[in-house]
Amino acid sequence: MNNIFVIKPYKLWGSVWVFDDEVRGAIQEPFVGATNLILDSLTAKIKKADKGFLLYFSDAPLKENHISLSLAHSEMGWSTYQVDGSEQKGSLCPFLLKFWPAPTKKIYAYAQPLA
């Protein structure tokens, strides 16, 4: 099934990306570790991305893929994804399971500036 989700990440404390998702019960849900660096790379060309940007993501290719990630490992709800074509890896916490019932094998995403 092709699911497309949209969240609005923003930075707290200068370096930690977080997002709010009232529908799924998240307030300042943090991205962890190297996932912050992946988001930094993804938003490098977006002005004031730290104040917020739109992150579209899906388990199927999107029209405007900026990045794709492959599941490298999953254990106890934590999932490690590798950026395709790179050695860069980042972990996603069990909150990911609020989007999919199990860790998806691929995540396709793109970033868009706020209007």
Number of distinct helices: 1
Quaternary structure: single chain
Shape: globular
Number of strands: 9
Q: What structural category characterises the helix and strand content? A: mainly beta
The secondary-structure element order is EEEEHEEEEE
Question: How big a fraction of the residues is strand?
Answer: 35-45%
**Major β-sheet strand ordering:** 1-5-9-6-7-8
Radius of gyration based on Cα positions: 13 Å
List low-confidence stretches: none
Query: Overall mean pLDDT score?
Result: 93
How many domain modules? 1
Describe it.
The chain has one domain. It contains 1 helix and 9 strands; from the N terminus they run ββββαβββββ. With 115 residues, it is mainly beta. The strands form 2 sheets. Strands 1-5-9-6-7-8 form a 6-stranded antiparallel sheet, covered by helices on one side. It has one helix at 35-42, and strands at residues 4-7, 10-12, 16-21, 26-30, 53-58, 67-75, 78-83, 89-92, 106-113. The mean pLDDT is 93. It starts with a strand and ends with a strand.
